[in-house]
Design a protein that fits this description.
This protein has 385 residues and is α+β, with helices and mostly antiparallel strands. The chain contains 14 helices and 6 strands. The protein is elongated and about 105 Å long.
Length: 385
C-alpha cells in the first residue's frame, strides 16, 4: 500500500473553516492506495482508503504570514503521511493488524513446526517447543499475550522444566527450544503480524558442554570378549565404535546402502539428523560386524531397538566387561572420534568421516585429546627425588 498527500479546494459553503472568511481553503487528506481488484464484470477496480486530516491551506496566499501558515500546515500533513506509511510498512495500520495480533500463537508455531516435518531432528525440537508452550501457557495464547515479560518467564520455565522421566531438560534442549521460540517471533515480525520481537533483549540460555564419555582401545577389546544378552546390540555398538555412525543411521541401514567390492566396503546413506548424503568407506573389521548380506531393503541390524531394556542391557554389558563409566550408545561415536585423533587422523578428515557440516563441531574431540596430552606429560615422576 502507498500513501499520497492530496489537496482539495473547498466549496464556498465549507470555506467558513478559514480564519478569514474572505479566503478560500484547500483541504488536505491522505489517499491510501490498496491495489486493485477485478469486478464481477471483469473490470479492474482501484482500491483506495481516504483519511481527512482536518488541516487546511490558504488558497493563493499573498502575505508572508499566510505563506508561512501554509508551509507549517504542509509540514504537519507530511509528518502524518509518513507516519501512516510507516504503520503500513510495519503491519500496524488499520484493523488488519489488530486482528493479526489476536492470532493464536500456539497455532502459529505449530504451523512453523509442520513445515519442518521432513527434517526429523529439527521437527522433533519444534514439536517439543509446542508441547512446552501448551503446558506453560495453555491453548489460548495470542500474540497480544507474548510480551517481554512472557518471553523472560517462559525462558525461566524451560530452565526448570522436566522430561517424562522427571529429569531436568538438558541445557542443550533448553537452548534449542528457546532459540526456536525466538525464530518464530522473528518470523512473525517479518510477516508483519507484530511490530517488533519482544524477545530481542532476552538472552538465550547457554549450552553447558558436558564431559563426553568414550572408551579406550583396551576397553573396546574387553567388550569384544564379553558376552551381551542382545547379540545385535553388541554388534551395532562395536560397529559404531569402528565407524562413528549414529544409532539412528545404524538402525536405518539397509543392505541396499552397503556396497561390497574387491577393494573393500562402502556405505552410502542419508544421515537421519542432517539429511546430508554420506559416502563412508569402512574397515575390514567393521565389515565383519554387519553379518551376512541379506535382501536389498532388509535392515542390516535386524532386531535392533531403542528401549529402556536395551539401555539397561548396555549398562550390564559394560559392567560385566569391567567398565564403570556412564556409557550410552552415542558414546561409541565419541569413541571413534577420540581414537581416530589419537591415532593421528587429522581433524578435517575426521570431520568428513563423522559427517559434520562445520569443523568447529569436530573441534570438541581435539580438545579432549589436548587434555589427555597434558595428563600424559605430568605422569613422569619427580626426578629430583
Amino acid at each position: 500500500m502507498k500513501v499520497h498527500l492530496r489537496q482539495r479546494k473547498q466549496t464556498d459553503k465549507k470555506s467558513s473553516k478559514s480564519n478569514d472568511t474572505n479566503k478560500a481553503n484547500v483541504s488536505l487528506y491522505l489517499e491510501i492506495y490498496k491495489g486493485t481488484a477485478i469486478t464481477p464484470e471483469g473490470k479492474t477496480k482501484i482500491l483506495r482508503d481516504y483519511e481527512y486530516l482536518n488541516l487546511y491551506l490558504i488558497d493563493k496566499p499573498t502575505s508572508i504570514a499566510d505563506k508561512q501558515i501554509n508551509k507549517d500546515t504542509l509540514a504537519l500533513a507530511e509528518k502524518i503521511k509518513n507516519k501512516r506509511q510507516s504503520e503500513i510498512d510495519n503491519g500496524t495500520y488499520g484493523f488488519d493488524s489488530k486482528q493479526k495480533k489476536q492470532t493464536n500463537f500456539i497455532d502459529y508455531i505449530q504451523s512453523l513446526s509442520n513445515k519442518r516435518y521432513e527434517s526429523k531432528g529439527n521437527f522433533g525440537n519444534w514439536e517439543s517447543l509446542v508441547k512446552h508452550l501448551k503446558k506453560y501457557a495453555g491453548l489460548n495464547l495470542t500474540f497480544n499475550d507474548v510480551n517481554e515479560k512472557f518471553c523472560e518467564d517462559f525462558r525461566d520455565y524451560l530452565n526448570s522444566a522436566k522430561t517424562k522421566s522427571n529429569q531436568k531438560l538438558s541445557s542443550g534442549s533448553v537452548s534449542s527450544y528457546y532459540t526456536k521460540f525466538r525464530v518464530a517471533l522473528k518470523q512473525a515480525v517479518k510477516e508483519k503480524i507484530i511490530l517488533s520481537n519482544p524477545s530481542d533483549d532476552i538472552s538465550t540460555p547457554k549450552v553447558i558442554e558436558k564431559q563426553r564419555e568414550y572408551l579406550t582401545l583396551d576397553e573396546i577389546k574387553a567388550l569384544v570378549k564379553t558376552e551381551c544378552r542382545y547379540e545385535v546390540l553388541k554388534r551395532a555398538f562395536i560397529f559404531s565404535c569402528l565407524t562413528g555412525l549414529r544409532w539412528s543411521d545404524i538402525n536405518n541401514l539397509t543392505w541396499n546402502d552397503v556396497e561390497i567390492t574387491s577393494d573393500g566396503c562402502r556405505i552410502t546413506f542419508h544421515q537421519q539428523k542432517t539429511k546430508g548424503l554420506q559416502y563412508l568407506d569402512i574397515s575390514g573389521q567393521a565389515k565383519n560386524y554387519i553379518g551376512t548380506q541379506g535382501n536389498p531393503f532388509d535392515r542390516v541390524f535386524i532386531g535392533l531397538k531403542y528401549s529402556s531394556y536395551a539401555n539397561v542391557e548396555l549398562t550390564k554389558w559394560m559392567l560385566k566387561a569391567g567398565i564403570t563409566k556412564d556409557i550410552t550408545f552415542h558414546c561409541a561415536r565419541h569413541t571413534f572420534a577420540v581414537l581416530q585423533l589419537s591415532l593421528g587422523t587429522e581433524i578435517y578428515t575426521l570431520s568428513k568421516l563423522l559427517g559434520h557440516s562445520e569443523i568447529k563441531t569436530t573441534q570438541v574431540y581435539a580438545n579432549i585429546i589436548d587434555a589427555k596430552k597434558k595428563e600424559a606429560v605430568n605422569k613422569i615422576p619427580d626426578i629430583s627425588l
